Request: fold
Amino acid sequence: MIINIIDPTCNDHTGHCYGYDEAITKAASANTWQFTLWLGRKAKQLSFTNKKVNVKAHFCYKIRKLQLYWVYRKLVRDQAAIFVPTATSIDILLLSYLLARHTYTRKIVLHFHQFNKKPRKIAWLKKVAKVHSEKLVVITTTDRLAKQWAELGFQQVENIPCPVATVAKIVETPTSKPITFLYAGAARAGKGFLQVVNWLQQLAQQTSWQPMVHIQSSATHSGKYDDISQGALKTLRQLDYPNLTQEEHSLTPQEYELQFQRAICLLLYDKHSYHDKFSGICLDALLLGAPVITVQGTWMGDMIERFDAGLALSELTADNIWQATQKVYVDYDYYRQQAIIASGVLRDEHDAKHTVVALARYFDLR
Reply:
């Protein structure tokens, strides 16, 4: 049995796409399944633990949607098993078009990490659900997201915690290593990059408290910055703050994980955009024992309040952020211990075996 995993933006080890694909295929190593991974054009050198993985470095970023159509057309015609780990509305658009024109006897499993709330798109998705919900299985990363897809009329909706590849063990770093505030991942407006830069400006304007700060400000998959983040990045480069380190390039998995040692992770994300979204960075932080400062009404806020592993703010005002950073900094040892407790629970909840079991069920595998 060959399972085709479609992940066009996975080009290298950076980001969470590779970690997801590695986690799934590794968890299925003991099975007889084989995997064909349809990845980005630059993924030729990627290696996977499971030796029954065949990598097709196929997608060029600028024309990936057109390429997706032809890949899906081939797979649907061949009655191949299809799993999309980071699905979007484009995948549903193309697959629903093809399902209306070809007889396909399998189920297609789509893992959604977000939901587009535009009224026109919602109306269209309801129409798709009426016709194709028997074939289209929707897996989500949060309960809020699962509820929204079910309300559209999709009959096969299941929330499964997002799988992660094996992360480094929590390291007991010496207390002589300074506590560092960390912004990890790509510099994006929706991920609170501007709020972090504004907070840094506050720090630079006074001298009574100047903690270490590390900013990872790499670009998105497309290699570009949004306008807000580009302006914030310009401000950051001109900022005179003595305890700031910055990394504008993508990191290896090992370099990425090292950032979380004795760190407090700043996830000042937009509440509206992340109301129902999962955050891989938040999960990474907790798995690695790093406290988090974030916003309520999100998956991140739910996790932080569940384990008391940092602070979830009602609103991301400058005053709230300032007070929260000082409190978690002062009480770092307590919040770190709570994050370590969270790590033990979340490692099991996000084990890729749960997704593998679901795939076996939907693809009718034994």
About this structure: The two ends are 10 Å apart (CA to CA). The chain is about 40% helix and 15% strand.
